[in-house]
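@channel sequence for tomorrow's demo:
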Amino acid sequence: MSWGAEEIRLDDQSRFETLNGLWTGKKPPYMTAGVIRNTNFTESGRIDYSHVAWLQVEQKQLVKRQLKPGDIIVERSGGGPKQPVGRVVYFTREDGPFSFSNFTSVIRVRDAEAFDAKFVFYRLLELYQSGRTEDIQRRTTGIRNLDFTAYKERATLPQIPRPEQLIIAGVLEVVQRAIEQQERLLALTAELKNALLHKLFTEGLRGEPQKQTEIGPVPESWEVVKLSDVCTFQSGGTPSKQRPDFWEGTIPWVSPKDMKRPRLVDVIDHISDEALEEGSKLAPAGSVFVVVRGMILAKDVPVALAEVPMAINQDMKAIIPGPRVSAAFLLYAMAALKQKLFEKVGRSAHGTMTLMSTEIAGFQIPLPDKQTQHGIAYAIETLEKKHELHRRRLAALTALFRTMLHQLMTAQIRVHDLDLDLLECGDMSPHVRIRKVE
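structure tokens (generated this afternoon):
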């Protein structure tokens, strides 16, 4: 499907201006400026200002390269093994001053009567997300360089009426704002969970007096026990990769790559009953899994609760709660004390990060009565459910945005095909009714 309108190339200097990035320079006078670098780029085209570098730069260079609202910054060098170069971000700030690094360039709209800057940005964002910058990049050791001449030739803009451009950009921006809202809510619920874990595992539910223990303050009526006092343990293994039939079963098989959420229902790999007998063991539902080997332990100790019976690989340990401790409480106790667990991580003779079985068995947790355990688990699980709801909404919104971006920017749908009355972000669940152009 085409726009049925003239396509203007990005190298049309009467319509667009290109500015090269800033070098720090060595000639005074100097000015302090925030410099947008590749590390400030996000996949969605927003700028992450949390780690902007404030540098002393030549005043002469800054005057020519100071960012203005509506500027589009293009990544010309960077990327990675799995990340093509060519990302774009849209600049909106009016404070500053801000500039951009020598690994980037700026596209600035000169003909504002013909082209809306936000529409141009979304067109370039779609060019990147569709993968159409991958064949115009050159790779050197550890870095990718964009063929910027070829990029400006490939990046064409349909000369459609500006009001239609504004509507398209506005619709996409509404969905992006909804995405940003979900991201903020995700961050907030994660922060609240950490605060709640700390509060409940030091103060309990009843506000009773505290006592000092080896693991810090806990309510006076609670015990402090070793995991080996209240749990049993189980190791795992990997069935032979030489037997494809071993990997065609229905039994979930967990490895560290699956340990991204606090509760596991299903995972990537599944094995057969025969594979289980020869290469692994089945841990019961309610087991708490912990990663005990691997480079992930250099920065975190992932723990998760198996909600169904699952097998694990040799880099995992299953902690099976006994009758004195509930599975959910054990999960949250491990999460609350994760920093103390992290401190026990060591490095093996071969350089691998490892948690020894003796460290797991001797790890101490606080232990209240079962009623209190259930109450604490319920409070934290309620917050986790909100977090998961926001995660699912974020995933749905992200998929919606990518679909709409592609279809709007390739004229598969036009703005008159959108039922804009259904775009509602007040309840954080936007819907758009789309009718395809025939």
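heads up for whoever presents: The domain at 223-367 is CATH 3.90.220.20 (Adenine-n6-DNA-methyltransferase TaqI; Chain A, domain 2).
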